[in-house]
Amino acid sequence: MKNILTIIKKEFLRFFKDSRMVLTTLILPGLLIYLIYSFMGDGLTSLFEADDNYIYTVYVYDMPEELNENYFKQLKNFKFVEISENEIENIKTSIEDKQVDCLVVFPKDFMETINSYDSTVSGAVAPNVEIFYNSTKTESQSAYSTVVSLLDTFESTMSNKFDINAGGLQHDLASQKDVTGQMFSMLLPMLIMIFMFSGCMAVAPESIAGEKERGTIATLLVTPIKRSELAIGKILALSVIALLSGISSFLGTILSLPKLYGSSMEGMDISVYNVGDYLMLLGILLSSVLIMISLISIISAYAKSVKEASTLIMPLMIIVMIMGVSSMFASTIADNVFIYFIPLFNSSQAMSGIFSFNANILNVVITIFSNILYSVLLVVILAKMFNSEKIMFSK
Q1: Under 8 Å CB-to-CB from 274, ≥6 apart: which residues?
Q2: Which end of the chain is more exposed for a tag (fewer CB within 10 A), N or C?
Protein backbone atom coordinates (compact mmCIF):
# COMPACT_ATOMS: atom_id res chain seq x y z
CA MET A 1 0.00 0.00 0.00
CA LYS A 2 2.89 2.33 0.75
CA ASN A 3 4.28 1.86 -2.76
CA ILE A 4 0.86 2.44 -4.31
CA LEU A 5 0.44 5.68 -2.34
CA THR A 6 3.89 6.78 -3.48
CA ILE A 7 2.91 6.30 -7.13
CA ILE A 8 -0.37 8.15 -6.53
CA LYS A 9 1.50 11.03 -4.87
CA LYS A 10 3.96 11.17 -7.77
CA GLU A 11 1.12 11.38 -10.33
CA PHE A 12 -0.69 14.04 -8.33
CA LEU A 13 2.47 16.14 -8.03
CA ARG A 14 3.18 15.77 -11.75
CA PHE A 15 -0.33 16.91 -12.61
CA PHE A 16 -1.17 19.59 -10.03
CA LYS A 17 2.26 21.27 -10.23
CA ASP A 18 1.71 21.82 -13.93
CA SER A 19 -0.57 24.87 -14.01
CA ARG A 20 -1.21 24.45 -17.73
CA MET A 21 -2.51 20.91 -17.27
CA VAL A 22 -4.72 21.99 -14.38
CA LEU A 23 -6.09 24.83 -16.48
CA THR A 24 -6.72 22.78 -19.64
CA THR A 25 -7.98 19.63 -17.89
CA LEU A 26 -9.96 20.83 -14.86
CA ILE A 27 -10.96 24.47 -15.40
CA LEU A 28 -11.29 25.09 -19.14
CA PRO A 29 -13.59 22.13 -20.01
CA GLY A 30 -16.40 23.23 -17.69
CA LEU A 31 -15.87 26.93 -18.41
CA LEU A 32 -15.83 26.48 -22.20
CA ILE A 33 -18.88 24.21 -22.16
CA TYR A 34 -20.78 26.76 -20.09
CA LEU A 35 -19.79 29.65 -22.39
CA ILE A 36 -20.45 27.73 -25.62
CA TYR A 37 -23.81 26.28 -24.53
CA SER A 38 -24.91 29.65 -23.13
CA PHE A 39 -23.88 31.39 -26.35
CA MET A 40 -25.74 28.76 -28.39
CA GLY A 41 -28.84 29.21 -26.24
CA ASP A 42 -28.78 33.00 -26.63
CA GLY A 43 -28.23 32.62 -30.36
CA LEU A 44 -31.10 30.17 -30.79
CA THR A 45 -33.37 32.42 -28.74
CA SER A 46 -32.57 35.44 -30.90
CA LEU A 47 -33.05 33.30 -34.01
CA PHE A 48 -36.54 32.06 -33.17
CA GLU A 49 -37.85 34.66 -30.72
CA ALA A 50 -38.15 38.42 -31.10
CA ASP A 51 -37.12 40.81 -28.34
CA ASP A 52 -39.74 41.19 -25.60
CA ASN A 53 -39.89 44.95 -26.14
CA TYR A 54 -40.17 44.75 -29.92
CA ILE A 55 -43.22 46.48 -31.45
CA TYR A 56 -44.61 44.48 -34.38
CA THR A 57 -45.90 46.56 -37.28
CA VAL A 58 -48.71 44.83 -39.17
CA TYR A 59 -50.41 46.46 -42.13
CA VAL A 60 -54.04 45.52 -42.73
CA TYR A 61 -56.43 46.07 -45.59
CA ASP A 62 -60.19 46.20 -45.12
CA MET A 63 -60.16 44.76 -41.58
CA PRO A 64 -63.70 44.46 -40.13
CA GLU A 65 -64.18 46.79 -37.18
CA GLU A 66 -65.72 44.00 -35.11
CA LEU A 67 -62.62 41.85 -35.58
CA ASN A 68 -60.34 44.76 -34.81
CA GLU A 69 -62.12 45.77 -31.60
CA ASN A 70 -62.61 42.27 -30.15
CA TYR A 71 -59.38 40.56 -31.20
CA PHE A 72 -56.56 42.54 -32.82
CA LYS A 73 -56.61 45.47 -30.39
CA GLN A 74 -56.08 43.02 -27.52
CA LEU A 75 -52.61 42.08 -28.75
CA LYS A 76 -49.72 43.61 -26.85
CA ASN A 77 -46.67 45.00 -28.70
CA PHE A 78 -48.63 45.08 -31.97
CA LYS A 79 -49.27 48.15 -34.08
CA PHE A 80 -51.88 47.76 -36.85
CA VAL A 81 -51.84 50.21 -39.74
CA GLU A 82 -54.78 50.40 -42.14
CA ILE A 83 -53.78 50.82 -45.79
CA SER A 84 -55.55 51.35 -49.10
CA GLU A 85 -55.67 48.85 -51.94
CA ASN A 86 -53.08 50.66 -54.07
CA GLU A 87 -50.53 50.36 -51.23
CA ILE A 88 -50.64 46.56 -51.02
CA GLU A 89 -47.90 45.87 -53.59
CA ASN A 90 -45.52 48.37 -52.00
CA ILE A 91 -46.03 46.79 -48.57
CA LYS A 92 -45.37 43.32 -50.02
CA THR A 93 -42.13 44.61 -51.47
CA SER A 94 -41.16 46.06 -48.08
CA ILE A 95 -41.86 42.69 -46.44
CA GLU A 96 -39.65 41.00 -49.01
CA ASP A 97 -36.91 43.49 -48.14
CA LYS A 98 -37.40 42.78 -44.39
CA GLN A 99 -38.49 46.35 -43.68
CA VAL A 100 -42.07 45.46 -42.68
CA ASP A 101 -43.25 42.57 -40.51
CA CYS A 102 -46.59 41.47 -41.90
CA LEU A 103 -49.53 42.31 -44.19
CA VAL A 104 -53.09 41.03 -43.68
CA VAL A 105 -55.54 41.42 -46.58
CA PHE A 106 -59.22 40.77 -45.88
CA PRO A 107 -61.67 40.15 -48.71
CA LYS A 108 -64.46 42.62 -49.38
CA ASP A 109 -67.49 42.31 -47.09
CA PHE A 110 -65.65 39.71 -45.00
CA MET A 111 -68.11 39.54 -42.08
CA GLU A 112 -71.20 39.36 -44.31
CA THR A 113 -69.58 36.64 -46.42
CA ILE A 114 -68.65 34.37 -43.50
CA ASN A 115 -72.04 34.85 -41.88
CA SER A 116 -73.78 33.68 -45.06
CA TYR A 117 -71.23 30.98 -45.96
CA ASP A 118 -72.57 27.41 -45.91
CA SER A 119 -69.99 24.64 -46.39
CA THR A 120 -72.74 22.11 -47.22
CA VAL A 121 -73.65 23.96 -50.41
CA SER A 122 -71.92 22.44 -53.42
CA GLY A 123 -69.32 24.74 -54.96
CA ALA A 124 -69.42 27.22 -52.08
CA VAL A 125 -66.04 28.95 -51.70
CA ALA A 126 -64.94 30.05 -48.24
CA PRO A 127 -63.65 33.63 -47.90
CA ASN A 128 -59.86 33.74 -47.93
CA VAL A 129 -57.72 35.99 -45.72
CA GLU A 130 -54.23 36.53 -47.18
CA ILE A 131 -51.30 37.00 -44.80
CA PHE A 132 -47.96 38.00 -46.29
CA TYR A 133 -44.73 37.64 -44.28
CA ASN A 134 -41.03 36.85 -44.58
CA SER A 135 -40.02 33.62 -42.84
CA THR A 136 -36.33 34.58 -42.84
CA LYS A 137 -37.04 37.51 -40.53
CA THR A 138 -37.67 36.44 -36.93
CA GLU A 139 -40.10 39.25 -36.16
CA SER A 140 -42.05 38.65 -39.38
CA GLN A 141 -42.39 34.93 -38.68
CA SER A 142 -43.50 35.64 -35.12
CA ALA A 143 -46.08 38.22 -36.25
CA TYR A 144 -47.46 35.79 -38.83
CA SER A 145 -47.82 33.02 -36.23
CA THR A 146 -49.62 35.36 -33.83
CA VAL A 147 -52.07 36.62 -36.46
CA VAL A 148 -52.80 33.09 -37.70
CA SER A 149 -53.46 31.93 -34.15
CA LEU A 150 -55.77 34.88 -33.57
CA LEU A 151 -57.76 34.20 -36.74
CA ASP A 152 -57.98 30.50 -35.85
CA THR A 153 -59.46 31.50 -32.50
CA PHE A 154 -61.96 33.77 -34.24
CA GLU A 155 -62.87 31.04 -36.74
CA SER A 156 -63.56 28.55 -33.94
CA THR A 157 -66.19 30.89 -32.50
CA MET A 158 -68.14 30.89 -35.77
CA SER A 159 -69.10 27.22 -35.53
CA ASN A 160 -68.06 26.25 -32.04
CA LYS A 161 -69.90 23.04 -31.08
CA PHE A 162 -67.62 21.94 -28.25
CA ASP A 163 -64.43 22.98 -26.42
CA ILE A 164 -61.28 21.07 -25.53
CA ASN A 165 -59.62 21.64 -22.17
CA ALA A 166 -61.55 24.84 -21.50
CA GLY A 167 -61.84 26.43 -18.07
CA GLY A 168 -58.19 27.19 -17.29
CA LEU A 169 -57.52 23.94 -15.41
CA GLN A 170 -54.14 22.24 -15.73
CA HIS A 171 -54.68 19.18 -17.91
CA ASP A 172 -51.06 18.09 -18.30
CA LEU A 173 -50.67 15.91 -15.22
CA ALA A 174 -46.92 15.32 -15.61
CA SER A 175 -45.21 16.34 -12.39
CA GLN A 176 -42.06 18.43 -12.09
CA LYS A 177 -40.26 15.22 -11.18
CA ASP A 178 -41.47 13.47 -14.35
CA VAL A 179 -40.44 16.36 -16.60
CA THR A 180 -36.98 16.56 -15.04
CA GLY A 181 -36.49 12.80 -15.24
CA GLN A 182 -37.46 12.61 -18.91
CA MET A 183 -35.08 15.38 -19.98
CA PHE A 184 -32.12 14.35 -17.84
CA SER A 185 -32.36 10.60 -18.57
CA MET A 186 -32.14 11.30 -22.31
CA LEU A 187 -29.35 13.86 -22.21
CA LEU A 188 -27.05 13.45 -19.22
CA PRO A 189 -25.87 9.79 -19.51
CA MET A 190 -24.42 10.52 -22.95
CA LEU A 191 -22.79 13.78 -21.84
CA ILE A 192 -21.37 12.29 -18.64
CA MET A 193 -19.85 9.33 -20.51
CA ILE A 194 -18.23 11.64 -23.06
CA PHE A 195 -16.97 14.06 -20.39
CA MET A 196 -15.41 11.29 -18.31
CA PHE A 197 -13.73 9.72 -21.32
CA SER A 198 -12.40 13.11 -22.42
CA GLY A 199 -10.92 13.58 -18.96
CA CYS A 200 -9.28 10.14 -19.17
CA MET A 201 -7.85 10.94 -22.60
CA ALA A 202 -6.39 14.18 -21.28
CA VAL A 203 -4.26 12.54 -18.57
CA ALA A 204 -3.62 8.83 -19.24
CA PRO A 205 -1.60 8.95 -22.50
CA GLU A 206 0.76 11.58 -21.11
CA SER A 207 1.29 9.60 -17.89
CA ILE A 208 2.21 6.30 -19.57
CA ALA A 209 2.95 6.78 -23.29
CA GLY A 210 4.52 10.14 -22.48
CA GLU A 211 6.90 8.60 -19.95
CA LYS A 212 7.78 5.85 -22.45
CA GLU A 213 8.50 8.48 -25.08
CA ARG A 214 10.71 10.50 -22.70
CA GLY A 215 12.38 7.38 -21.28
CA THR A 216 11.42 8.15 -17.66
CA ILE A 217 9.31 4.99 -17.40
CA ALA A 218 12.56 3.01 -17.16
CA THR A 219 13.39 4.69 -13.84
CA LEU A 220 10.08 3.58 -12.37
CA LEU A 221 10.42 0.03 -13.64
CA VAL A 222 13.83 -0.51 -12.01
CA THR A 223 12.59 0.63 -8.58
CA PRO A 224 11.91 -2.17 -6.04
CA ILE A 225 8.13 -2.16 -6.41
CA LYS A 226 5.79 -4.68 -7.98
CA ARG A 227 4.48 -3.95 -11.44
CA SER A 228 0.94 -4.47 -10.10
CA GLU A 229 1.55 -1.74 -7.51
CA LEU A 230 2.75 0.60 -10.24
CA ALA A 231 -0.32 -0.18 -12.37
CA ILE A 232 -2.75 0.28 -9.45
CA GLY A 233 -1.12 3.53 -8.33
CA LYS A 234 -1.24 5.06 -11.78
CA ILE A 235 -4.82 3.99 -12.47
CA LEU A 236 -6.14 5.25 -9.12
CA ALA A 237 -4.37 8.60 -9.43
CA LEU A 238 -5.42 9.10 -13.06
CA SER A 239 -8.99 8.08 -12.21
CA VAL A 240 -9.28 10.82 -9.59
CA ILE A 241 -7.95 13.44 -12.01
CA ALA A 242 -10.21 12.23 -14.83
CA LEU A 243 -13.21 12.24 -12.51
CA LEU A 244 -12.47 15.84 -11.48
CA SER A 245 -12.28 16.81 -15.15
CA GLY A 246 -15.60 15.06 -15.83
CA ILE A 247 -17.25 16.81 -12.90
CA SER A 248 -15.99 20.18 -14.17
CA SER A 249 -17.59 19.53 -17.58
CA PHE A 250 -20.76 18.20 -15.94
CA LEU A 251 -21.17 21.34 -13.82
CA GLY A 252 -20.62 23.54 -16.86
CA THR A 253 -23.37 21.66 -18.69
CA ILE A 254 -25.88 21.76 -15.81
CA LEU A 255 -25.37 25.50 -15.30
CA SER A 256 -25.76 26.27 -19.02
CA LEU A 257 -28.84 24.08 -19.69
CA PRO A 258 -31.39 26.79 -18.73
CA LYS A 259 -29.87 29.13 -21.33
CA LEU A 260 -29.46 26.40 -23.93
CA TYR A 261 -33.02 25.09 -23.74
CA GLY A 262 -34.73 28.30 -22.64
CA SER A 263 -38.46 27.89 -21.96
CA SER A 264 -38.31 24.11 -22.45
CA MET A 265 -36.39 23.90 -19.14
CA GLU A 266 -39.33 25.35 -17.23
CA GLY A 267 -40.67 22.88 -14.69
CA MET A 268 -37.33 21.10 -14.28
CA ASP A 269 -35.55 21.09 -10.96
CA ILE A 270 -32.44 19.08 -10.07
CA SER A 271 -33.44 19.15 -6.40
CA VAL A 272 -36.01 16.40 -7.08
CA TYR A 273 -33.13 13.89 -6.78
CA ASN A 274 -32.34 12.68 -3.26
CA VAL A 275 -29.11 11.68 -1.52
CA GLY A 276 -29.58 8.03 -2.48
CA ASP A 277 -29.76 8.94 -6.17
CA TYR A 278 -26.53 10.93 -5.94
CA LEU A 279 -24.73 8.13 -4.07
CA MET A 280 -25.75 5.58 -6.72
CA LEU A 281 -24.64 7.98 -9.45
CA LEU A 282 -21.29 8.54 -7.71
CA GLY A 283 -20.69 4.79 -7.48
CA ILE A 284 -21.39 4.38 -11.19
CA LEU A 285 -19.15 7.31 -12.10
CA LEU A 286 -16.23 6.01 -10.02
CA SER A 287 -16.48 2.46 -11.36
CA SER A 288 -16.93 3.66 -14.94
CA VAL A 289 -13.93 5.97 -14.87
CA LEU A 290 -11.82 3.06 -13.55
CA ILE A 291 -12.65 1.03 -16.66
CA MET A 292 -12.02 3.95 -19.01
CA ILE A 293 -8.68 4.81 -17.42
CA SER A 294 -7.64 1.14 -17.40
CA LEU A 295 -8.46 0.71 -21.10
CA ILE A 296 -6.70 3.92 -22.09
CA SER A 297 -3.70 3.01 -19.91
CA ILE A 298 -3.34 -0.34 -21.67
CA ILE A 299 -3.50 1.36 -25.06
CA SER A 300 -0.98 3.97 -23.87
CA ALA A 301 1.37 1.26 -22.59
CA TYR A 302 1.23 -0.44 -25.99
CA ALA A 303 1.79 2.80 -27.94
CA LYS A 304 5.26 4.15 -28.59
CA SER A 305 4.31 7.82 -28.24
CA VAL A 306 1.54 10.09 -27.01
CA LYS A 307 0.54 10.81 -30.61
CA GLU A 308 0.21 7.11 -31.42
CA ALA A 309 -1.74 6.52 -28.21
CA SER A 310 -4.20 9.31 -29.06
CA THR A 311 -4.74 7.77 -32.50
CA LEU A 312 -5.33 4.28 -31.10
CA ILE A 313 -7.77 5.62 -28.50
CA MET A 314 -10.13 7.19 -31.06
CA PRO A 315 -12.04 3.94 -31.91
CA LEU A 316 -12.62 3.44 -28.18
CA MET A 317 -14.00 6.98 -27.92
CA ILE A 318 -16.50 6.19 -30.69
CA ILE A 319 -17.62 3.10 -28.76
CA VAL A 320 -18.09 5.16 -25.58
CA MET A 321 -20.16 7.73 -27.49
CA ILE A 322 -22.37 4.97 -28.91
CA MET A 323 -22.82 3.51 -25.42
CA GLY A 324 -23.81 6.95 -24.12
CA VAL A 325 -26.33 7.55 -26.90
CA SER A 326 -27.82 4.09 -26.31
CA SER A 327 -29.58 5.38 -23.19
CA MET A 328 -32.02 7.21 -25.47
CA PHE A 329 -33.06 4.12 -27.39
CA ALA A 330 -32.48 1.05 -25.22
CA SER A 331 -35.23 1.55 -22.62
CA THR A 332 -37.03 -1.61 -23.81
CA ILE A 333 -34.17 -3.83 -22.62
CA ALA A 334 -33.35 -1.89 -19.45
CA ASP A 335 -35.07 -4.54 -17.30
CA ASN A 336 -32.81 -7.31 -18.59
CA VAL A 337 -30.36 -7.92 -15.75
CA PHE A 338 -27.70 -9.37 -18.06
CA ILE A 339 -27.06 -6.04 -19.82
CA TYR A 340 -25.68 -4.67 -16.57
CA PHE A 341 -22.70 -7.01 -16.96
CA ILE A 342 -21.69 -5.29 -20.22
CA PRO A 343 -18.99 -2.69 -19.42
CA LEU A 344 -19.78 0.95 -20.29
CA PHE A 345 -23.19 0.00 -21.69
CA ASN A 346 -24.29 -0.93 -18.17
CA SER A 347 -23.15 2.46 -16.87
CA SER A 348 -25.20 4.33 -19.47
CA GLN A 349 -28.32 2.28 -18.72
CA ALA A 350 -27.90 2.52 -14.95
CA MET A 351 -27.48 6.32 -15.09
CA SER A 352 -30.55 6.60 -17.32
CA GLY A 353 -32.53 4.60 -14.75
CA ILE A 354 -31.38 6.87 -11.92
CA PHE A 355 -32.21 10.10 -13.77
CA SER A 356 -35.65 8.77 -14.78
CA PHE A 357 -36.40 7.56 -11.21
CA ASN A 358 -36.63 3.95 -12.41
CA ALA A 359 -33.37 2.72 -10.91
CA ASN A 360 -33.25 -0.88 -9.71
CA ILE A 361 -30.87 -1.26 -6.78
CA LEU A 362 -29.80 -4.74 -7.93
CA ASN A 363 -28.94 -3.47 -11.41
CA VAL A 364 -26.93 -0.57 -9.97
CA VAL A 365 -25.01 -2.92 -7.65
CA ILE A 366 -24.30 -5.31 -10.53
CA THR A 367 -23.07 -2.38 -12.64
CA ILE A 368 -20.70 -1.10 -9.98
CA PHE A 369 -19.24 -4.46 -8.98
CA SER A 370 -18.91 -5.75 -12.56
CA ASN A 371 -17.11 -2.54 -13.53
CA ILE A 372 -14.74 -2.92 -10.58
CA LEU A 373 -14.11 -6.57 -11.52
CA TYR A 374 -13.33 -5.64 -15.12
CA SER A 375 -11.01 -2.91 -13.85
CA VAL A 376 -9.11 -5.40 -11.71
CA LEU A 377 -8.65 -7.68 -14.73
CA LEU A 378 -7.43 -4.74 -16.80
CA VAL A 379 -4.96 -3.76 -14.04
CA VAL A 380 -3.56 -7.31 -14.17
CA ILE A 381 -3.12 -6.97 -17.94
CA LEU A 382 -1.43 -3.58 -17.51
CA ALA A 383 0.92 -5.02 -14.86
CA LYS A 384 1.93 -7.82 -17.24
CA MET A 385 2.57 -5.25 -19.94
CA PHE A 386 4.84 -3.36 -17.52
CA ASN A 387 6.74 -6.65 -17.04
CA SER A 388 7.33 -6.97 -20.79
CA GLU A 389 10.54 -5.30 -21.90
CA LYS A 390 9.47 -5.75 -25.53
CA ILE A 391 6.44 -3.55 -24.94
CA MET A 392 7.84 -1.01 -22.51
CA PHE A 393 11.14 -0.37 -24.26
CA SER A 394 10.03 -0.65 -27.88
CA LYS A 395 10.97 2.28 -30.12
Answers
A1: none
A2: C
